[in-house]
Amino acid sequence: MKKRITCALLVLVMLAGALPSSALFTDIVSDSERWAAESLASLGIVNGTGGSAFNPNGTLTRAEFCKMAVLAAGFSEVSLYSSYTIFPDVLASEWFAPYVNAAVRKYQIIRGDSAGNFNPNTPITYGEAVTILLRMLGYTVEDIGYFWPCDDALKAEQIGLNRGMRSFSTSDSLTRGQAAILLRNLLMTEQKEGGLYITKAFRTGDLSVLAATWETDTELANGEVRLYAGEDASIVTSSTALSRDLVGLRGTPVYAQTGNKLLGFIVDTENLETAVVQSTSIDAITTADGSKISIPRSCKLLVTAGMVDYTASYYDLRPGAQIYLYRDDGGSVSLVTGGQTTLSLASVGVYGVDDIVFVRGSTILKNGSEITEDEIDKFDVVSYVSDEKTYYVSDDRVTLLYEDAKPSYASPSTITAGGHTFSISEEASRYFQDLTFNRTITLLFDYNGNVAAAFNSARVGGKVPAILTELGGEATVKLLSNGLELKGTPSFSGFPEVDAGDGEGVSSLYAQVGRIVGFSQDNQGRFTFSTYSFRDTSAGDIDPVKGTVGRYEFSPEIRIFEEPAEGMPLNEITQEDLGPVTLSASKVRHIERDSAGKVSLLVVSNVTGNGFTYGLISQTQTQVPAGEDLEGNTVYRTQYTLNLRTDEGTQQYVTFRNPGLRNTSSMVPGGIATSVLAQTYSEAPPAFKLERTATVGRDDFDTREGVRVGNVFVELADDVLIYAKSIDRFLTLNEARSNFSTFEIYCDRDPGDGGTVRIILVS
Question: Where does the SLH domain lie (predicted)?
């Protein structure tokens, strides 16, 4: 398969020094300022002002510029220069003291004013800044001239120190964005005695194109980047996470004086142009503004296939792609890099695989929550809706056995996987070219639930959460992410048999029916499962009104499930079902948070009472044969029988675990988990006894809707059961109020916690 090179150009925040993942500055509009700032940030010379901001139009103080200057010189001995005072207005306790002290003692590039002060918090002027940098380059007043600062500004222009900058008078305050260009120029300027200044503290590589980083190319290992020096590709390890905004640009790789790890990358802006493709031909590129750029046969092109001749792959530059063009000394285009495409309406791409440009100022949503590009994971599907200027990101996927494709294997419009037929768009069909039948593949879905891509499961796979809804000779699962229902032959591997009585064994997988499981299909076509461990139960109280669990907000797409009793099948409920009052943290059984840190999955213990069938329950127990011991003697096991009586008749449930009720033939108000009544086996005790909440009179009822218990109005369940023991009958409420005066109320939980009346005994 061809190597794919991704150039992602959405600006995010880039902090100084090594980072676990790259980030970009989001507030720099100027390309030249942004590339300079990102280049310096890769070496730890500059950083942002907080969050994703660089504040390019803000001014720099003399202390701030001094720090940047000595860091550009390779300064690192902070502790050696932080314990003394040189200027009376630069105390040793100030954050900038070691940098100012080093600038005086180690580099001799700054001086105080006539009063002996440094004035650290005064904005630095353009004239002061170039004077400092000229000293760093080895120039003296004899080389420059005695008319400061005009001679210094003139010298800076002569040697190209201000190339790419806007015009400044010597007394103008220097902005942060323009200071970044000035310092970038310093690094790439010849010293008075020869050699680029950057080589004083660093080692440089050959001029190269930064083709990809480990974050933009899934074929690269963590920390790796791919460089092209001419047509030669190399993979190097970086000690810092290079900004994705630098991918696709040509520049100078920067290394430590010793060792082979890449420290940073300085963008080369000489003869660089940017454009957006409207159309291409074998000898020209027409840009979005209607301009036509001639391309000679000798031009090279860096696209998904690598560094190739432009004539061999010009068609890979798709409409909407932002590209970089480099001209030679004669003005001809010698190199085009890019291949990244802005997703259009209804278009999708796979992050880290496809070439995606993020439109600045757009919104990125994942699972309904706003995120940054940094929070998009490899293999997430990105869909752009231009009318909304919004990117929708989906991490929905499933691993299934690839069975068939029509009408062609290489470009199918439908495929069969996991016994299910999926429609495949023309855009998604390209992912099936190298896939093989009777092997597992992982399907990736967009935010609408459509198949957007597919990969060999060895490349991206794993189990996904699903509800095991049915189990027998065939299993039925429902994916938690998008509701897709699949049926197939189950594998019971990993789930040992347990004794079900009468010498019969049954797989413990049956205990997972109705619960969340990890799901995938194997190469033999079997549905395979894993238990889904509940975790993170100490997040805090649930506030259904605010939509929070502790300090975590609900995701707009939160899924909430209720576990009526431990180990029981789950019932999906809504935020409204949680009620109007705060629920104790003890009700939290499990939470998961999305990329934005919001709660996307919440499992609670019994909070609605709706997961049970209520009625009059009795429990008995008997000893039943369970096999023989080694001597041939019959071994017995306790079998518990529950009888649940309602106005529709009596249901019976048998279990080998004590449900916890007192053994008696007397019928008492209680409930059994509804889902358990339909099962042949369950490991968890399924029943509980209801405690009497209160005794009221007929006048305490408010028609058929509720009853007053003290000062609390308690709702009646729609299927509330009313039983008269004296006549052994279930009654309607009107019938009961007409003939009886005393009403024992049984609620599923405390009325103060939103309890509902489930059973009423009348006398």
Answer: 20-82, 83-147
pLDDT tens-place string over residues 390-447:
888 999 999 999 999 999 888 899 999 999 999 998 888 889 988 999 999 999 999 8
Q: Which has the closest alpha carbon to 550: 516, 597, 596?
A: 597
Instruction: Write out 433-487 in H/E/C secondary structure.
Output: CCCCCCCEEEEEECCCCCEEEEEECCCCCCCEEEEEEECCCCEEEEECCCCCEEE
pLDDT in tens, 24-54: 687 888 999 999 999 999 999 998 887 778 9
Residue with the bigger pLDDT between 245 and 355: it is 245
Among residues 354, 264, 352, the alpha carbon closest in space to that of 35 is found at 264
At 173, the pLDDT band (50, 70, 90 cuts) reads very high
Output the six-digit token pair for 347: 């278009």
Which fold, 272-342? Answer: OB fold (Dihydrolipoamide Acetyltransferase, E2P) (2.40.50)
Closest CA to 325 of 294, 360, 279: 294
Could you give the 3-state DSSP secondary structure of residue 375? helix
Q: Element (H or E) spanning 186, and its range?
A: helix 176-187
Query: Tokens for 360?
Result: 């600045």
Closest CA to 56 of 23, 82, 32: 32
Sequence-ordered list of residues with C-beta below 8 angstroms from that of 367, at least 6 positions apart, any chain:
395, 555, 556, 557, 594, 595, 596, 598, 600
Phi, psi of 440 (to 5 degrees): -75, 140
Rounded CA gap, 748 and 754, in Å?
9
β 232-237/224-229 pair status: antiparallel
Higher pLDDT, 288 or 746: 746
- Tell me which residue has tokens 């400092």: 132
- Looking at residue 376, the DSSP 8-state letter turns out to be P
Which of 88-102, 131-145, 492-506, 716-730 has the lowest average pLDDT?
A: 492-506
Taking the CA atoms of 623, 627, 631 and 633 in sequence, report the sign of the dihedral they define: positive
Domain ranges of the chain: 31-200, 272-342, 397-456, 464-495+508-531, 542-605, 612-688, 692-762
Domain 464-495+508-531 classification at class level:
mainly beta
Q: Residue 43 has what pLDDT?
A: 93
